[in-house]
Structure formats: C-alpha cells, structure tokens
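Review form for a predicted model. The reviewer records the input and the model, then writes brief findings.
Reviewer: anonymous (R2)
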Amino acid sequence: MTIKEAEEKTGLTRSNIRFYEKEKLIEPARNSKNGYRDYSEQDVANIKKIAFLRTLEFSIEDIRCILSHKVSLEEMIKKQAVVLQKQIENLHGAKTICEKMLASGNTSYDELQVETCVTDLHTYWKDNKKVFKPDSVSFLYLWGNLITWTIITALCLIIGILSYTKLPAQIPVQWSGKAAVSFVKKEFIFAYPLACILFRIRLRPVIYVRLFMHYPFGELITEYLSNYVCFAALSIEVFSILFLHGLAKNVTVVLLLDTAVLMGLLIVGIAKMGLLSNPAKLWKYRKS
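Model under review:
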C-alpha cells in the first residue's frame, strides 16, 4: 500500500511515518515497478504499536531496543511505570502547592515568600534535583546531544571536502611515535564522517542498552561517549591533514588531550549533580 493508504489506516500523519522510517523502526519494502515504498499490513501494525508506545513516553531508543529484542516489552513497561509514577508524585506535589498559594493569596512575585510554601527548603531542593540538572551541568547536556553530533559530523565532512584536492594520493592512518607507518588512498578522508554516522546508527544503541539498563546516567553517558568517539574521529582527521603539512607530529598527544578534556567534563558534570561519591544517591537517581 502507498504512504497515503498507510496514513488512512493508522490515523497518523505522513511526517510521523517518515520519522519512524528515518529512525529505522520500520523498513517498508520498495515496489519493484516504480521504486516507491510499499507498506504491508505488518508495517501498519508496527506503526500503530510504535505510536502507542510513544504516547506512553517511551523514547525512540527504548522502542528500538524492544524491536531488536535486546530487552523485552515487559521490562521496559516496568521501568516506564516507575518513571511515570515518580512524575505523577512530583506533579501532584506541585499541584498541591499551587492550590495552597491560590487559597492563601500568595500570588505576588514581589511579596512571594518561598519558606511559607515549603516546609523544609533543603529537602525540597533535593526532591526536585532533576529540575536543576540542566542548570548545573548545561555544558554536559550540550555536549551529549544530537545537535553536537550533527555539528561534529558536518565538520568532518566539510574538512574532508575542502582538503581533498590538496591531499597527496596517499594519506597516513596509523602512526608510531612521530612517524606514519600506514597509508591509504586519500579518499579515506571521507571515512571519518562516515564513521560518525555508522557509530551513531549501529553502535550507539548497543552501548545504550548495556549502560541504561544497568548504570545511573546510562542514557546521558551513552550520548556523551557517542559524541566523544566522533570528536576523536574529527581530531584524527585534522591531525592527518596537519601531519601532511608538517604542522603536527604526534597523534597520541592529540588523543590524550581529547580524553583528558572530555572525561574531565563528564566527571565534573556528574559531580555537580552531587551524586558521584554517594552510591545510595546514585541508586536512588537510577530508580527515579
């Protein structure tokens, strides 16, 4: 069936269906006669299931893990039920406070006294720590997101395009100390952006499953590490070009600096959450 027919059967828009395709959650066959997508009844059923899980606030990665049988739907439902229950409790508490403020007439910003709304201010801040995470570790969340990955990948591609015509027929890809020991054709310069794309599509989901299901901050660290690998690829690409022009000599120094800076940011970010040195808090955060 055509995408128009799939829209009619699912009740979803074309952009929704295309998005699920782009994320590789569905992969409709192609019509051999005209090359158009040919949606099957199973595709339609999958689209409905995916959209339904999204209404339950399952992430795309959660659904991808279910479809690839890396985790069961039952496991993810249990995890999501805990997450939603916590959200309900938080929203109920916020609603209660708002109602009290309205009842007491405490609605002027200039005259607002926070202590009259909250019994124990320090406990209240701790209970709402998730609200403040972007405030305290904004640089960490900035590093671990899709926009940063897109910028890194785009830079890899742009640098490759701009430098390609000026490169010799063979470029270095392996070094020993300050000497290049392995060379490949200069077309390899485009392998760096390709590696960024493949890593995000193929390997990131694997890391996500291993970390998110077993460790605190798994989702954040997955994104962070994914972008770190791509950043390392960008660094090596730039180093290769500089090496050919005699402007850089030792790739090990570059990689060590990358690792030191990025791991430092990760540690500082988690430490700012106040959870790094307290296993009990780490477990509580993981459950939330």
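Findings: The two ends are 43 Å apart (CA to CA).
Further findings: The first strand starts at residue 29 and ends at 30.
Recommendation: see findings above.
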